[in-house]
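Module 6 notes. Inverse folding takes a fixed backbone as the condition and produces residue identities as the prediction. Think of it as a translation problem where the source language is geometry and the target language is the twenty amino acids. Below is one complete input and output pair. Work through it position by position during the lab.
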């Protein structure tokens, strides 16, 4: 973080917002003058776990410290931040844990050996002995060496996964295949004649990914908010490398948007860009494919018929768009293709399946991220307010809710019929906004779309119809779209300024971030993100979990009563 934003090291004790505990948990008091600066520092090496109104709980984990170490964060800086902001002396046990985990990154290093093998070197004799006795690593050892052992080239990814499990993440110094050359340049003007250049933080992200062209460069994850131009980072990396590239993304709509961006911002010819989707399967120097296509099976129990695309020799770079959604079969093949440069793009490294360590091992460590609020302050993404509207269940539904099985209660609360009237009220009160109504359950969305007379986009909507409706929304021919989770990812709707979330996927932090992200393209009005929640239900519990990542980024959710007089606050400043 910017040292100019830091308080003095001798900040008065009463103003220090942190309490650091010996088990690695950190309590942050949110109301003090230095809470924001402390939160920004914590984001470099800790994860937010709970965020009630006044005291947030962070946890320092091995993975959070390894990501910090891979990005160049050193132990001395972490300890300085904790000393600077902590109200009480930092426990020595916490310090020791931080030092130990940061030191573990890179103690095991992978080096090239010959055309068949790599060498795993571990300079520390005690760690080398510990790893030599590991049953998990035994199957990888081909030949003992003075400082480690040789492993087969094809086991490069699987070995890195195993080392993560052992608590010693490998630093991979083996380099990468160049792939087939593909010279391309970034335009200085788009096809419409608008001046174009990469933003400073996008240039920083690309440079961090490449690390000056050294042997460690070429594998890792860039974390940027939705609307901050992750696609531009991917395109900039392609231009820097000048090599044939495979781009994997979430949907056919996203494939088309990547194609438009490449044609708009580079000198590539249309025939140099191929699409590998359900509608077209053409391989070109730049090939755009969907995860769904790669994980398609011809029949139940059959092999994944298109995964061979990942193994093709010409790729010098593979871009994993929305890497937090990477499916398990693609993980398995990615373990095989460690000689290819890999760039993950995401708004959040949170994975609801807990496989963040596999992203670290197989795609690479976090190379770059920046706080959402920092980019908002610089005008690169829209200012946004987050508001949670709580409403009661109708009396008859309260009885049904109380007697329902636990697994059914969330959906009963999420489909609270009183939400429909509130959606109508919000839309009527905000006539100058382009509005997205977002939800999880199709029967609920169908009822809302019917009541509003608005278009509905779900997984059943053909791709051509989706793109037609998105285009109509961008041209202001449609002011309101009702959308299911298919619109969570990689949909460019720059003029959307208000979203109403009527239901979501339990406690999914990544989904909450992506949905707010639909509003963050810069515009001439603040964005507002409403979440409708049934009071005193399981939905309220899950809403608190969903909000964790955005709270970590500096957003605060205002809790409002869902009665109509309190529904809209057009003059409120962003929270």
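Target side of the pair, the amino acids:
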């Amino acid at each position: 973080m910017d040292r100019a934003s830091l308080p003095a090291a001798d900040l008065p004790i009463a103003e220090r917002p942190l309490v650091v505990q010996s088990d690695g948990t950190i309590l942050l008091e949110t109301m003090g003058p230095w809470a924001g600066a402390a939160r920004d520092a914590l984001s470099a090496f800790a994860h937010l776990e709970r965020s009630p109104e006044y005291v947030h709980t962070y946890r320092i984990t091995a993975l959070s410290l390894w990501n910090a170490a891979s990005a160049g964060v050193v132990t001395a800086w972490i300890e300085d931040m904790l000393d600077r902001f902590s109200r009480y002396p930092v426990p020595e046990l916490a310090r020791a844990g931080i030092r130990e985990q940061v030191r573990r990154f890179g103690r095991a290093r992978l080096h090239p050996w010959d055309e068949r093998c790599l060498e795993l070197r571990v300079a520390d004799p005690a760690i080398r002995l510990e790893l030599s006795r590991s049953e998990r690593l035994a199957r990888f050892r081909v030949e003992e060496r003075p400082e480690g052992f040789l492993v087969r080239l094809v086991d490069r990814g699987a070995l890195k996964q195993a080392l993560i499990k052992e608590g010693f993440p490998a630093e991979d110094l083996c380099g990468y295949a160049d792939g087939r050359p593909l010279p391309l340049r970034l335009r200085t003007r788009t096809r419409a004649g608008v001046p174009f250049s990469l933003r400073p933080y996008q240039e920083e992200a690309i440079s961090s990914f490449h690390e000056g062209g050294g042997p460690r460069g070429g594998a890792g994850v860039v974390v940027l908010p939705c609307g901050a131009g992750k696609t531009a980072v991917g395109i900039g990396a392609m231009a820097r490398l000048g090599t044939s590239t495979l781009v994997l993304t979430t949907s056919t709509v996203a494939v088309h948007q990547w194609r438009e961006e490449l044609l708009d911002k580079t000198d590539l010819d249309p025939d140099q860009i191929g699409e590998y989707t359900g509608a077209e399967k053409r391989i070109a120097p730049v090939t755009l494919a969907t995860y769904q296509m790669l994980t398609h099976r011809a029949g139940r129990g059959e092999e994944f018929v298109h995964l061979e695309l990942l193994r093709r020799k010409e790729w010098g770079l593979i871009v994993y768009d929305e890497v937090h959604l990477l499916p398990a079969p693609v993980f398995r093949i990615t373990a095989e293709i460690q000689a290819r440069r890999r760039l993950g793009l995401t708004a959040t490294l949170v994975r609801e399946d807990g496989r963040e360590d596999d992203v670290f091992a197989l795609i690479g460590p976090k190379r770059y991220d920046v706080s959402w609020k920092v980019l908002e302050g610089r005008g690169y993404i829209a200012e946004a307010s987050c508001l949670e509207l709580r409403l009661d269940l109708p009396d008859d539904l309260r009885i049904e809710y109380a007697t329902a099985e636990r697994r059914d209660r969330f959906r009963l609360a999420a489909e609270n019929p009183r939400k429909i009237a509130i959606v109508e009220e919000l839309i009527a009160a905000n006539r100058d906004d382009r509005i997205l109504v977002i939800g999880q359950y199709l029967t609920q969305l169908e009822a809302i779309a019917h009541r509003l007379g608005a278009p509905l986009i779900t997984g059943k909507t053909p791709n051509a119809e989706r793109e037609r409706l998105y285009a109509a929304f961008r041209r202001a021919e449609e002011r309101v779209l009702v959308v299911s989770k298919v619109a969570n990812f990689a949909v460019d709707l720059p003029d959307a300024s208000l979203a109403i979330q009527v239901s979501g996927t339990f406690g999914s932090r990544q989904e909450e971030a992506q949905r707010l992200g639909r509003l963050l393209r810069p515009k001439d009005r603040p964005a507002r993100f409403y979440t409708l929640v049934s009071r005193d239900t399981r939905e309220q519990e899950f809403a608190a979990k969903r909000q964790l990542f955005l709270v970590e980024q500096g957003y605060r959710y205002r809790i409002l009563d869902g009665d109509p007089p309190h529904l809209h606050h057009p003059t409120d400043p962003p929270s």
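Reference fact for the lab report: Residues 3-104 form one domain.
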